[in-house]
Amino acid sequence: MTTLGIFAKPPRPGLVKTRLIPDIGADKAARVYRYCLEYTLGMARDSGIDYQLYLTEESDDESLRDEPYAIQQGDNLGTRMLNAVRELLARNPDGAIIIGSDCLDLHSDHLQAAAQALADHELVLMPAVDGGYALIGCSQVEPALFDDVTWSSDRVLEQTLANAEKLHYRASLLETVRDIDTLQDLELYPELRALVASN
Q1: Does the model's pTM come out above 0.90?
Q2: DSSP element (H, E) containing 113
Q3: Least enclosed by CB within 10 Å: which of 81, 137, 168, 196?
Q4: Confidence category of residue 50, pLDDT binned at 50, 70, 90
Q5: Contact 178, 103 (CB under 8 A)
């Protein structure tokens, strides 16, 4: 069975969902992020897959009190993911999966599907509507997989697949999902609309 890494930030106002702040304010943006993070952790527990939370910085937030976490290591997202994947593969060479914490379309059966794909692929990706990806899984990893990727752009998936081709990785793509980054994304989810509407 693979191992799972969850990349997250402490759910602190002003630190998370910054693209939502102009529309709904820092406190409600943090409320949205906290909901998504709690959903993600619950989904990970339900999957039965061994997981590790990777935070951007130390946190004493009470919602994370029972979640042992590591601190992401690296000066950009690619390096941080590379280091986490290496650590997870050292624990379990069958495969490592990394997800974020802001995708309510992601379910435990997606994690199982990704784990199964890694049995005969070096790479599995779950594309996101915005051109990135909501999940990456590796059965092996080389730094070049994350080279020359324009993070937070609409070319992340395309550039990652190009790197995988150069490495001769067999890549499997799962269904396309939506991260929650903008007000337009948020409005597609009734539970988030209700959260923002409440005082």
Answers
A1: yes
A2: helix 108-117
A3: 168
A4: very high
A5: yes
